[in-house]
Specification:
The chain has 142 residues and is mainly β. Helix content is 0%, strand content 57%. It has a five-stranded mixed beta barrel.
């Protein structure tokens, strides 16, 4: 899933970053590992700046639990805990990437990779509800 917007906050801890990105219609929180820059809390990144436009490819990770829904469901992604990358996704399984990773369609032409903590069998066309951590998959495009 791609997220485009402006960086509104950056919390740092070593190589890890917690970003809040203001998109056109919402504030999205996601984690980013930046292996080329180690920072102590309170230090500023030379690569990421506040109010800088970014485009991120994010996925859903650390999914320990899921629920297959009966019939069609209203696809959605929500983040109910302010300041947390925790996200709940409801969508249709549209593909299998590996034994523990599936592609879920949230909206038309908007898919997210969901990586589970263990191997499982889901079928294309299943509607599922999953909760996990939203994290950047690829580098940041500035």
């Amino acid at each position: 899933m791609k997220i485009s917007g402006k960086i509104k906050s950056i919390d740092v801890d070593g190589y890890e970053r917690l970003l809040s990105i203001q998109t056109d219609d919402r504030l999205v929180w996601c984690n980013l590992v930046q292996p080329n820059e180690y920072l102590e809390p309170g230090q500023s990144s030379i690569y990421l700046k506040m109010d800088e436009p970014v485009q991120l490819k994010v996925g859903l990770f650390f999914i320990a639990d899921h629920r297959v829904l009966e019939g069609r469901a209203d696809n959605a992604m929500s983040q109910d805990a302010y300041g947390s990358p925790h996200a709940i996704v409801i969508g249709e399984v549209i593909g299998k990437i590996s034994s523990d990773t599936y592609l879920i369609e949230i909206e038309k032409n908007d898919q997210i990779e969901a990586q589970f903590e263990s191997n499982l069998e889901l079928n294309s066309g299943d509607y599922i509800r999953v909760a996990g951590e939203l994290a950047v998959q690829d580098g940041v495009s500035l």
